[in-house]
Fold this sequence. Notes:
The protein has 66 residues and is an all-alpha fold. The protein has one domain (12-63). The protein has three helices and no strands. The longest helix is centred in the middle third of the chain and has 18 residues, at 14-31. The model has no long low-confidence stretch (mean pLDDT 89).
Amino acid sequence: xxxxxxxxxxxxxxxxxxxxxxxxxxxxxxxxxxxxxxxxxxxxxxxxxxxxxxxxxxxxxxxxxx
Length: 66
């Protein structure tokens, strides 16, 4: 398990990332557990930082052609 110190998103498709984000939103809405939306927001924040974009631009990019 020591090999999983950092997770890479290189192997995830655009569709996979969108599904993860939408699943976290859906789960938060239906369970009211903030941990899910906090994780979603953390993932989005990091991806926006890495791509130098805003959340709206990044999510719109993921949603395009899906």
